[in-house]
Amino acid sequence: MSRLVLVLGDQLSPDLSALREADKSRDIVVMAEVADEAGYVRHHPKKIALVFAAMRKFAASLREQGWDVRYGAFDDDATAGSIVGELLRRAEETGADGVIATEPGEWRLINALKYAPIPVNVQPDDRFLASHADFESWAEGRKSLRMEYFYRDMRRKTGLLMEGDEPAGDKWNYDHDNRKPAPDEVTHDGPLWFEPDDEVEDVLDLVAARFGENFGDLRPFGFATTRDQALEALTHFVRHALPKFGDFQDAMLADNRFLYHAIISPYLNLGLLGPLEVCEAAAQAWRDGDAPINAVEGFIRQIIGWREYVRGIYFLEGPDYTGRNALGQSRDLPAMYWGGETRMACVAHAVEQTKTDAYAHHIQRLMVTGNFALLAGVDPAQVHEWYLAVYADAYEWVEAPNVIGMSQFADGGVIASKPYVSSGSYINRMSDYCKGCDYSVTKKTGEGACPFNTLYWHFLIRHRDRFKDNPRMGQMYATWDRMDEERRETVLADADAVLARLDAGEVV
Asked: Which among 327, 316, 2, 383 has a CA at the least distance from the CA of 138?
């Protein structure tokens, strides 16, 4: 009997474990653009188009390799509404008596396959460098699960930037060298984009017709949709942007969305690129003298360190992780996250870039939109859903720990040792956003004061019982305690006024 081989939209890898386990001569690949996956959150149209187009091209490549591929297009009325429904349809059509699948990256789909009314043989997703067992073994017995120590083990495991048993350059981490503010001039033209071919244009027309009301601009569209294009994008980054990536990876500019960033995370998370090949390309640039070690180490750390670490956390913590709310925050996500009016230039720039590109880099996500949501007391479930919806690289295994843990501290400190909150001064130091803002970043209270400045203290005080003994936050509370009482009252009153305007739906 033949078996069905399920390939999901973020599993577009020729060495996928399900494909390796299958027999090309008799097994049948199933791929489908189903309504459940396209609509469980209101995904950015660019994200939907990227996944659909890349899926269609991957299916074509499998056919060229001799696979029998049954593909369910979104606009085909026969396509089922769910992954399990499509498997049942294809099983009835072909007579297949079982399914081979690679483990999905979301508990929602894992459970759907677990309880499917057809036998499903789930293979590990070994496209990652750390298996679940590897991460569980590393985590066992540790009081805190800090990424830095996991990252060092991953360096040892892969040999990346290692000289024997020691890190290249005698340092594991060059983060201290990678915090320069925005440069006066950016010498890189940005990531490599690709003109849509006829097949991609067909997908864009479909997405425009079916998802045109979703938040986000569908066109212009320039993402890579094949492995060959993704490799070109990687080569372009390594050659032209990697040398200065480290210096300015945290910087933000109003008139330059990308600076020296790679924009390859959508391709990594789709499966078009593998983490090790990406890191090896960067390491080779260092060995060849084409990129400095601080840039290469910082880039590699994001992939074999942070990316692998957050996946480990997601599966270690279990299906309830996305529902955590350790700080008890309950405010609705403000309309400005969906393009509503705001007077805050930093938030406006980050949201507009998100709307246009389905992309914003990690500091825009963490220290602008994430920081404001945390300071304002927004319900972390709503924040999580927003990030999952609006970014082209967002899949729950990677997005949820970054938002629930790192950004919103909703997991109570599993990932972060303290909340990532700041006043407006950090944003002013790392960007030029504040120069064009209606608010004054140097004004701490009163009319025209930056909302980040007052909300920062409001957050610290309303959560003082939780954080007062945190050694990384003691200085902040000491500073507050040194303020005179009248100023403290003014700060909190001004913050209350900002929150009241948010609750009333007024522009902030």
From this structure: 316
Q: Which helix (H) or strand (E) holds 29?
A: strand 28-32
For 431-444, the pLDDT digits (tens) are 999 998 999 999 99
CA torsion 397-399-401-404 (nearest 10°) is -130
- Distance of alpha carbon 196 from alpha carbon 202, whole angstroms: 9
Helices (H), 422-463: 424-430, 451-462
Residues 218, 355 contacting (CB under 8 angstroms): no
For 280-290, letters b (16+ CB in 10 Å) and e give: ebbbebbeeee
Is residue 308 a contact partner of residue 155, using CB atoms and an 8 Å limit?
Answer: no
Question: Before 220, cis peptide (omega within 30)?
Answer: yes
pLDDT in tens, 98-107: 999 999 999 9
pLDDT tens-digit series, residues 250-308 = 999 999 999 999 999 999 999 999 999 999 999 999 999 999 999 999 999 999 999 99
The residue count for the chain: 508
- Which tokens is 1 given? 């009997």
Q: How far apart are the C-alpha atoms of 199 and 187, rounded to whole Å?
A: 33
Question: What predicted TM-score, i.e. pTM, was given to this entire model?
Answer: 0.97
Name the CA dihedral angle for 177, 180, 186, 192, rounded to a multiple of 10 degrees: 60
* Nearest-angstrom CA–CA distance, 507 and 119: 53
Residue with tokens 């920062």: 456
How far CA 51 is from CA of 136, 265, 299, in Å, comes to 31, 13, 25
Name 191's Cβ contacts closer than 8 Å, sequence gap at least 6.
233, 236, 237, 241, 258, 261, 262, 263, 264
DSSP summary character for residue 259: T
* Beta strands per DSSP E along 103-246: 120-123, 162-163, 166-167
C-alpha distance from residue 275 to each of 178, 209, 233, 295, 301 (Å): 21, 35, 14, 17, 11
Phi then psi for residue 167, to 5 deg, are -70, 145
Tokens of 275: 């983490």
State both tokens at 29: 């690949």
Please say whether the dihedral angle defined by the alpha carbons of residues 440, 445, 450 and 456, taken in this order, is positive or negative. Answer: positive
* Spatial separation of the C-alpha atoms in residues 369 and 334, rounded to whole Å: 11
Amino acid code (one letter) for 25: S
Q: Coil, strand, or helix at residue 33?
A: coil
Question: H or E stretch including 209?
Answer: helix 198-211
Q: Is 166 helix (H, G, I), strand (E, B) or coil?
A: strand
Helix, strand, coil % over all residues of the chain, rounded to 5: 50, 5, 40
